[in-house]
Amino acid sequence: MTQNRKTPRRTPLYDLHVGLGGRMVDFAGWELPAHYPTGIISEHRHCRNHAALFDVSHMGQVILTGADAAAKLEALTPAALTTLPEGKARYTFFTNEAGGILDDLIVSDAGDHLFVVVNASRRDHDIAHMRARLHGVGVTPLADHALIAIQGPRAEDVVGAVCPAARGLRFMETTPARIMGADCRISRLGYTGEDGYELSIPAARAEDIARALLAHEECAPAGLGARDSLRLEAGLCLYGNDIDPGTSPVEAGLSWAIPKSRREQGGFPGAARILNQLADGPSRKRVGIRPEGRAPARAGTEIQDEDGTVLGRITSGGFGPTIGGPVAMGYVAASHARAGVRVNLMVRGKALPATITDLPFVRPNHKR
Amino acid sequence: MTTYYSEDHEWVRLDGDTGTLGITGHAAEQLGDVVFVELKETGEAFAQGDEIGVIESVKAASEIYAPVDGEIIAVNDTLADAPALVNESPEGDAWLYRIRLSDPSQLDALMDRDAYGAFTG
Question: What is the pLDDT confidence band of residue A104, given thresholds at 50, 70 and 90?
């Protein structure tokens, strides 16, 4: 059977979302809840104060096998993957020859294989990219698995109740584990700035495990809207908005993910431009932006200096429920990429005053 | 007092020769959590179909379109500091404008509550 690409795909939790009153939307070709009846702000706050369950099954889960998988994957990214210990996860990105970002991803060393999670919108691209370049490496999409994120300060209690092994993990650690008899992989990481986990679960068991997690009094479901406002406050990039093939990791403020060894040796796509930018500084940088007043400034909004010179554009912007006001991030000329610099945002033809700030807006609360 | 509804999800409640205007409960529910309301000022005149304000929810910005011709005679200033009122009471306390209608016969082309209910299904 061929699948009609116009019809959004459903995750193993589709029926659960509908039953919970989720407002379903098409996101990157997947039918997912934008929010539930409680609304985005309530879901956002629940995640910051308790724990939230997100269905992230749309993301691409890929298994890489072969003796040289880490070395070969390393050649496509500026990360150190050959030194990645078993049971650890690392954030990195595929770069292009111009030093731009093709996608950002998490690579986990699972012992006899690498477990890679990529963005839904880049899943097909990334699988083709790896298959074309990772000679001798098995690139296998993990079929029939859901991915469930539990995020928030009470995430350990919620996941620990069904999976005691979860309590022993620290931030960016990963392990196979049984949850209610199902063979799963649990990783302590996420996309909210909070402590939390991502659970890779066989599709057939996803709904009953999700229901068990939601049965915990601290856990409530949250949709894509809260996921976006949480990651924005946490200063985390959304692929396609804040990073893309035209932005380099250095401009994006992601140099922390390029270790010393790769800076010295190079040997990844776009190394020339990226190493130059590391040495001399990029001409523009991603920054946080706090608009004055209550009006949100959305992606695409032009950023000007106080004389009207264009400095760049907002790449993500909206309302930050934890901040209690509008927050945004975007790229500005390096000359203005400094906390405290006053700028104007051109919203509906009017200059909205704003201040450049450091990222993140909300301090991370990871289990170190 | 009769309330009239537009296909753009505004309502107008006629009281003598003036009216009160807002967005419908259906619109407020579709928008989700409202975080910002931008309104015009008292004294401004507008024609049917003109953009007369913007309501921003966490999700997106939505324009408010005038369902009739008229002039603004009062603005609901409480919404500037309490935008969430739009979710709580869209067809009551979160009215947007008091208006003077230029041509009340334009209301005849709008929907009544039952027709609007059927329209939003």
Answer: very high
pLDDT of A83 strictly over 50: yes
Q: Please judge whether A319 and B83 are an interchain contact, meaning their C-beta atoms are less than 8 angstroms apart.
A: no
> pLDDT tens digits for A221-257?
999 999 999 999 999 999 999 999 999 999 999 999 9
A298 touches chain B (CB under 8 A): yes
- Determine whether the interchain pair A225/B36 forms a contact, defined as Cβ–Cβ distance below 8 Å: no
pLDDT band of residue A94 (cuts 50, 70, 90) is: very high
Contact A294 B83 (CB under 8 A): yes
SS (H, E, C) B3-57: EEECCCCEEEEEECCEEEEEECHHHHHHHCCEEEEEECCCCCEECCCCEEEEEEE
d(CA A141, nearest CA chain B) in Å: 32
Which domains are seen in chain A, by residue range?
Answer: 9-58+143-233 (3.30.1360.120), 283-357 (2.40.30.110)
Enumerate chain B positions whose Cβ falls within 8 A of a Cβ in A. Answer: 32-33, 35-36, 38, 54, 56, 58-61, 80, 83, 87
CB contact under 8 A, B33 and A326: no
Tell me the β-bridge partners of A62: A116, A141
For residue A101, give both structure tokens. Answer: 């970002």
CA distance linking residue A191 with residue A364, whole number of Å: 10
Model confidence over A22-77: pLDDT tens digits?
999 999 999 999 999 999 999 999 999 999 999 999 999 999 999 899 999 999 99
Chain B nearest C-alpha distance from A118 (Å):
24
How near does any CA of chain A get to the CA of B1, in Å?
32
- Domain ranges, ordered by start, for chain B: 3-120
Residue owning tokens 């931008």: B38
Peptide bond into A12 cis (omega under 30): no
Q: CA-CA distance, B112 to B116, in Å (whole number)?
A: 6
pLDDT of A5: 58
**Single-letter code of the amino acid located at A154:** R
Give the A window 82-121 contacts with B, CB below 8 Å: none
Look at the domain B3-120 and name its fold: OB fold (Dihydrolipoamide Acetyltransferase, E2P) (2.40.50)
Closest CA to A205 of A224, A172, A183, A233: A183
Q: In this predicted structure, what is the pLDDT of residue A51?
A: 98
Please give the average per-residue pLDDT across B39-52, as a whole number. Answer: 97
Q: What is the mean pLDDT of residues A279-303?
A: 97
